[in-house]
Please model this.
Amino acid sequence: MALFIKNIKQLNQIEINPVLMRAGEKMRDFYTISNAYLITEGKYIVDFGKMEDFSEKKLNSIKEKVEIIDATGKMVFPSFCDSHTHLVYAGSREIEYIDKIKGLSYEKIAKRGGGILNSSLLLHNTSEEELYESATGRIEEIISLGTGAIEIKSGYGLTTEDEIKMLRVIRRLKDSSPISIKATFLGAHAIPLEYKGKQSEYVDLIINEMIPMVSAEDLADFIDVFCDKGFFTVEETERILMQGMKYGLRAKIHANELDYSGGIQAGVKYNALSVDHLEYTGEKEIESLLRSETMPTLLPGAAFFLGMVYAPARKMIDSGLPIAMASDFNPGSSPSGNMQFILSLGCIKYKMFAEEAFNATTINTAYAMGLSDSLGSIAKGKIANFYITKHLSTMEFMPYSYGSNKVEQVFLNGKKF
Ligand code: NIG
Ligand code: FE
Model:
């Protein structure tokens, strides 16, 4: 199947010389073509350009049947890449939501056995099949909102058996879903109740049992640790990351959400692909990130939902750093995987320009999953994951008009979804 999309009002985020990510001032780089066409063949983007440069000859070399789509008045964007989610989970946590309205903090809820431990109990009592079904529903929803690649973490298992159960669900999703999925092992998400007061034994379990078993079944691409106040220390994080690396798992860690935890520096030291959250980022953290290949990834949905401080995104970009923005889709701190809303939060709360916010939710998040050579922009040879919008006045209308779905038609691997 091939596609010829014609009369596109604006084709966004095209790349002639593709880059793997954009940092600092380059985050404003955003190339577009007005009155454009786009051609895909099989799974791939094969050509694009101005309508006035199009001739029928361009379709002659295509061996497949070509479907013609007229996009007059509409725009085309590459799909969002969401590099940080926890979208395999059981049940939901409205009870804590009410507690938060009453004034309880995320940390206090966690301390009394709510939070991640609450989800862990619910997950323990839910079958693999049910987890798969509910996660499939969530993936279908985010696809319709424009997402074309995701990372999914374990971390609500917290026993070897249940962590493996979660990762097997993620593998099934990988096999059955039309979008690219990366799996992250997050055994170090919280300390299970039975290990209270003997946290180091739980870290030993992760190192000696969980990582080897996850690796034996080849269930994960990455390894994560929640390195923060009240969760895992820098020392524990380093022990876990070292073992992960031995088993070929690159780090993507939760850091500095609750305090200046040292997590950012630990991530950089172990060459993490990304460090995520980063609400507490100061000069030292920025310095450390500037000397690294680690993608600073912000999760504004969590700061929004929990009513917490926002990461200093503007300062980070102005210091020359790249920024990625992901949804953190999870039942506790961000129960939404809507990347259009993340785009809006980037502009509204972080004071990012629309160009920066688009780069942060596409090419830079693709980088944070190790996928930016094949996804995250409109470039020849990249996978044809993109969406056609409803009628749009300008591309800034996307973040501006928050809360409504501007995506009209989604294409994944060159096929209509
Ligand atoms: O990224 N911060 C740690 N983990 C998740 C929250 C998970 C939960 O509360 O269930 C996060 O926000
Ligand atoms: Fe998270």
Observations:
- The chain has a mean pLDDT of 96.
- The longest helix spans residues 199-216.
- The chain has 16 helices and 16 strands.
- The CA atoms of residues 269 and 292 lie 9 Å apart.
